[in-house]
Design brief:
This protein is of the alpha+beta class. The chain has three helices and seven strands; from the N terminus they run E-E-E-E-E-E-H-E-H-H. The chain has a domain of about 110 residues. The longest helix has about 50 residues.
Length: about 160
Amino acid sequence: MENYTVTSSLGPLELTPTDSGHIHASTARNSVSTVRGVDYRVGIHLYIWSDGLFHIGEESKNTYEQRQSLHAVRPYTGTKQDGTPATEPARARIAQVVTDTVKFFVKSCPEALTSAQRLHLEDKMHRAEHDYAEAMNKVLELCKVRDAAQDVFENFVKESV
């Protein structure tokens, strides 16, 4: 997976397309996302919906489940606000800015999704090949067990006659 660092009004964001229908957006490494002077660490899963645009959360999920796709908390700096979740207005601002940033990114860099889909499918193919090889090894092991059991059975039958 490739990471793309983009500029937004919140600060630098890291966008990671994992396939042609999913992008993970997060606060860039060693940075913060700032809303009205308050710093946050952000992680958001955006999925392509039937309208062809990326939205937060999967379209098939309910509002509560979609809401879980946006994570925003105060960074850990040694204060009592550490890890405090973002306020609703801050979440709304983060959601809007990140969604707009992703839409612009997808329009200006469509090859990123193509590349992510290619990598996703290659990985899926390699995992399937690995699983197939493991299954075939298991089949060979079971054949040996079956053959040994058959030999024992045939010897038993011969000796008992």
